[in-house]
Design goal:
By secondary structure, this protein is of the alpha+beta class. Strands 4-3-6-7 form a 4-stranded antiparallel β-sheet, covered by helices on one side. A hairpin with a 4-residue loop joins strand 3 and strand 4. The longest helix is centred in the C-terminal third of the chain and has 30 residues. The radius of gyration is 31 Å and the shape is extended. It starts with a helix and ends with a helix. The relative contact order is 0.09.
């Protein structure tokens, strides 16, 4: 009988404790922490900083010994910002590049912002930010909100002579958010872009698009004088309207 009473008492205490915890996490507090969580923001920017020159540092090609003595080495990196993390929250950050998870709290913030520096920019990186309620609330460790952020990779092809005068072509951008192609494909694609076979996004230009572009160019060429006259009239009319409006405004002031 004593054993049965002990079991019943233990069960009662267990369910009672659950009731207390649930009561502490009221609907009002739930709404509050949910609102705080959805206010969290993530972003990034490209920055540059000086670094120490070590024995294995590779100086740029063509630099003289005299220039090496005064050379200032720098590195580019992405600084990731997590904003609006309050005492009621903490954030688990999953980095796919390192396959690691790290927890950040309000104590890690400076002026209300948590920063993470990413120095390896050799591949596209995806981050997952999972926002949880902290022990400062009555219902800690609840997953409230999830955000995602992708940082691009550095594109070494942008330094190639093949990109001269076609910097707008996507494979000539400094950073890429799509997988890089082989060098042979890079050569082929830049040739195709120069030949007008693909657009700046690398998409094939259809015959219809070519005809439309060619037709528009021919129209401009054929009616060049008319286009110039119309442009002059439009500019002159715009100037006249501006003068009239200014005069009217002045007359009202007077």
């Amino acid at each position: 009988m004593k054993k049965i009473k002990s079991v019943v008492l233990a069960c009662f205490m267990f369910f009672a404790s659950i009731g207390i915890v649930n009561a502490a996490c009221s609907a009002e507090e739930t709404n509050k922490i949910n609102s705080l969580a959805t206010n969290v923001r993530v972003s990034y920017e490209l920055l540059e900083r000086e670094i120490e020159i070590t024995e294995d540092f590779n100086f740029p090609d063509g630099i003289t010994e005299e220039e090496m003595e005064n050379y200032v080495a720098k590195e580019s990196f992405f600084r990731i910002y997590i904003s609006n993390v309050t005492e009621e929250l903490y954030v688990n950050v999953i980095d796919t590049q390192t396959n690691k998870t790290k927890t950040y709290t309000y104590a890690d913030a400076k002026d209300g912002v948590i920063t993470i520096d990413q120095t390896d920019m050799t591949s596209i990186n995806n981050y997952t930010f999972m926002v949880y309620s902290s022990s400062a609330t009555g219902c800690p460790n609840r997953r409230l909100y999830t955000l995602y952020l992708t940082t691009p990779m550095y594109n070494s092809y942008n330094e190639s002579d093949l990109c001269v005068d076609i910097e707008e072509f996507y494979l000539c951008h400094e950073f890429l958010s799509v997988p890089v192609v082989s060098f042979d494909d890079f050569v082929k694609l830049t040739d195709n872009y120069r030949a007008g076979k693909i657009n700046e996004k690398g998409e094939e230009i259809t015959n219809t698009q070519k005809k439309e572009e060619k037709g528009f160019a021919q129209f401009i060429k054929k009616h060049r004088n008319m286009v110039i006259v119309v442009s002059v009239i439009v500019v002159a009319t715009g100037g006249l309207v501006t003068v009239i409006i200014v005069k009217k405004q002045r007359s009202r002031i007077v």
